[in-house]
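Margin note from the TA: students keep mixing up input and output lines. Inputs are the sequences; the output is the structure of the whole complex. Example:
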Amino acid sequence: MSRLRVGCVGTGFIAGKHLAALASFDDVDVVAVADTDAERAAAVAASHEARAYTDGLDLLGAEDLDAVWLCVPPFAHGALEEAAVRRALPFFVEKPLAHDLATAERVAGSVEAAGLRTAVGYHWRHLDVVQRVRRLVEERPPLLFSGYWLDRTPPVPWWAHRGRSGGQLVEQTTHVFDLARLLVGEVTDVSTTHVPASGPHEQPDDAVPLASSVALRFASGAVGSVSSARVLPGRHRVGIQLVGDGYAVELDERAIVDHELRLTTATGVVSEQSLQDPIAAEDRAFLDAVAGNSDDVRCTYAEALRTHALAWAADQSSVRGG
Amino acid sequence: MSRLRVGCVGTGFIAGKHLAALASFDDVDVVAVADTDAERAAAVAASHEARAYTDGLDLLGAEDLDAVWLCVPPFAHGALEEAAVRRALPFFVEKPLAHDLATAERVAGSVEAAGLRTAVGYHWRHLDVVQRVRRLVEERPPLLFSGYWLDRTPPVPWWAHRGRSGGQLVEQTTHVFDLARLLVGEVTDVSTTHVPASGPHEQPDDAVPLASSVALRFASGAVGSVSSARVLPGRHRVGIQLVGDGYAVELDERAIVDHELRLTTATGVVSEQSLQDPIAAEDRAFLDAVAGNSDDVRCTYAEALRTHALAWAADQSSVRGG
Amino acid sequence: MSRLRVGCVGTGFIAGKHLAALASFDDVDVVAVADTDAERAAAVAASHEARAYTDGLDLLGAEDLDAVWLCVPPFAHGALEEAAVRRALPFFVEKPLAHDLATAERVAGSVEAAGLRTAVGYHWRHLDVVQRVRRLVEERPPLLFSGYWLDRTPPVPWWAHRGRSGGQLVEQTTHVFDLARLLVGEVTDVSTTHVPASGPHEQPDDAVPLASSVALRFASGAVGSVSSARVLPGRHRVGIQLVGDGYAVELDERAIVDHELRLTTATGVVSEQSLQDPIAAEDRAFLDAVAGNSDDVRCTYAEALRTHALAWAADQSSVRGG
Amino acid sequence: MSRLRVGCVGTGFIAGKHLAALASFDDVDVVAVADTDAERAAAVAASHEARAYTDGLDLLGAEDLDAVWLCVPPFAHGALEEAAVRRALPFFVEKPLAHDLATAERVAGSVEAAGLRTAVGYHWRHLDVVQRVRRLVEERPPLLFSGYWLDRTPPVPWWAHRGRSGGQLVEQTTHVFDLARLLVGEVTDVSTTHVPASGPHEQPDDAVPLASSVALRFASGAVGSVSSARVLPGRHRVGIQLVGDGYAVELDERAIVDHELRLTTATGVVSEQSLQDPIAAEDRAFLDAVAGNSDDVRCTYAEALRTHALAWAADQSSVRGG
């Protein structure tokens, strides 16, 4: 088994999850880490005996890697992916693809032209409980979809700025839109109403709405809605509900390694709490694909673009309530 | 204490609940019962030592009552209410007011002209747990509303015909619309997508949709959605969810005498299962109002008309999914 | 398929469940029903187009049956079973076998001497969720057992009299003792403390204790406890908990057709609500055995006697708390 | 407001909670920290700008303190407390008081002779939800008690040695015994069966049992049981259940800052998740008492000794199952 050399741009919450997973694999060496915060970059790099960079582009330019993880804020996407494409370096990128749609579309074009291997962190796709639902809905298509992202405002300075994060629908609720596409199929109509942030803002349109409600129609004929809010004291409810002929499914993410599936049918309710780690699973699948051992990547850049475009459309269609 | 003489038109499920409540009051005599099914009318009347009728209009014509309960199917409303108005007989009527809007508007006009005392069976309004939520939202208005009526198709022959029942939104989900108005305020925009019933129907437009998703905008600026389905093996979820600044509320009806309230704030979750009987409470309130003792009627005909009009608008705005 | 002729002695709650199950089978005719309350006997018999008796012994003497169900209060056992044995009539008897141990031991001797086919209503044994636990514990034996019967005092006049019902441990908690034997194995030591009923009783020793706590040691080395109480406003908790190396199991009976299994392991929690009808299942198994088609009777009289003796020993070992 | 100078001996899990609480108070300076692990002592001390010691006795000898926190393993108690007594230094000590009874009795004698102010970390006593239950049981005494500590084996080297930790009953389940005393009253009889640890142990009697079941009788006449196990993959259930006339209470600790109370009565179920921090509360209460501002210490050394003696008696009475 030849060893895989990987780097990671970004050292935030989700980067930490990826680095922990990568470090746990026998055949992987984390050789480089970048963060604009030099102190963080140094500390994280030290814990992996890796080199530290303050600019991801420098990392990409200097290191000889088998794959790179791009875990940067929404507004920081674009140049990094383009650099990886130019170097024919397979990349795993965290959602959202970007704070806007244009950047993601441009990168998608480059990736496709280069035939580059990619993966995107829609990690629910790597959960066994999600795959169980997928098999169920293949036989008995859902008629009604409900999705939720009811949470606090994440305590990072850029998040509450629509022009930086893309807004809650694009940055968080995108996971729910991805599940909607995976389990119910493509969406043909989307329309959103929102509650704008109030108070004295210099650029009120830049403030991420406090809450929003999205109406969906699917190509299959199913209908649905997605509710988002950022005004709770903590994560309250993140998940989906499906109703089909004779059944209901609820799927909730309580934490990244704590998912619950409940299936109700005429014979009763079956539920399952999963402590599976979807981050490790998606990282392993991408590494195996890079190494040419297998191909279980469940969300490529091209596939993720469709989800990103849906979340973007939901945000753009938004009109104020009241 | 003078005794109150009451009658009841209809002997179905909810009529049975009202008759049980009325029979439990010391100051009430149930003196007459009507049902188009003569055998049922006789059996129910016998158990109350009351007279039996097969036509509610005959009952109204023959009996000297202090109040009458009208618990008939949606399509059977109109003439009964008009007859009660002509006799200046206070009436309690079950939801929905009618299978359509025109009938209810006509009755509302007559009731108002006559100044007649009425009450409508939006029984959630008589629950202490609902009043607790009401006090909460007066201080901290909701930003996001979600409502649900996920159930089986009721096993009565008229229910699945839109032209008879009015459809699920008008017949069942109307309780959810009533809570939306009570707790979030008036709705300014409503639009619905639905999944039509499939299969060989002679009059497909008459079949109640299998599922529907309603988008709402409120005068307060809040936004929301309502999900309904009739394809489950039994009652799955009937209730609402509210999100406001720093809190979330869930309120569910598991059975008519089994409601659950959950309130999540920064200090944790408080929940309460209530075994209060809202049917007995609304009946007692109406009787006390009729007797002139107090006025705690929480939903008059005029108030109910606004809820009915909202449910009707939701159903009328409905377009097919897909 | 030849038809099976059956009778039922007793028309109480559990007799009603058995009669409903028997009536649902295509190959069974309920031909006779007995109850000491002549009116009840007549009403129930009429609904099955069966003959009514006020004395079960008369029923056994007059009818030509393939099997009989004995669903009488604890104190009424003995003569009926002996009569069935004399007539070589297979019988299904509800728990408890009797209000005392001597009667059950005497009947067991007669049944064994006659080689008669019997079944006893420890219905949990016919639940799939219980069989799942059984397979689990065969591989990984439990170390710790906890059982519960926390309920109201049943509203029948004989129940609160120890000399009539046998007491809560013998009459209700016996199901928990049966599960303990089935899933953990035989018990070698049992000792109980109880809270006696207070207040002015003529025969205080005849009053069923308000609560009791039973300590158990098993032949396997496992240890455990059983908690019972009759002072709740309704059924609060009926079920068991098992702990073994690396797992915990909870199994609860919310209603006779509503059981919940929860299994916790290192990978998370799996739970299942079962709406299986164990009464119909045990009745069908007994009928199939009587007809010679198969033998899936899961609790014979001899097997039930061991459970009854354990419950009896728990009650007899009881000393007052405080 | 004069400032309070405090030290802490021990830097483990619970010491960390106390240090975080102490550091959060405006009027407290953490001036010294001790741990036998010099590196840990230095790191923790540095984060509080405090002096580091590797021997708690040295800390007590060198520092001029208003109070000290003693958060050491069970076997390390005795000399520290005696040193504090000699210096008339008020101390807060974590449970258990010691790995045995003799040490705790000796310290209790010294504390009493000196009239020293003390507090012990039975932190449940500082939870509002526990006080709510206390008020309830004062009016309606419990009849039946059940307690649980179903958990993994804590990953510290001394824990699984009875001669070092005192065993699970003394080290963990002591919280449950404390609640039993607080809410039901003193225990008059205690007897335990256990499942010994199997496998090749040099000193098998030193191995903490895998599971145990304790039977309790209370002076009030109530009865009960306590179940403990250390074979689960993680914390499974830690808490108590009380049954009294017409009610049941469940109280669970999911984490130190996550408790749930459920109260079932005839009117339904009321539950409350509390995110109150009982560690901060008990620390604040002790500091206020030390400063002479108020006295809300809920568990003194003398009071804790009674709980410790009960847990010790439960462990000593233990006989093997099977």
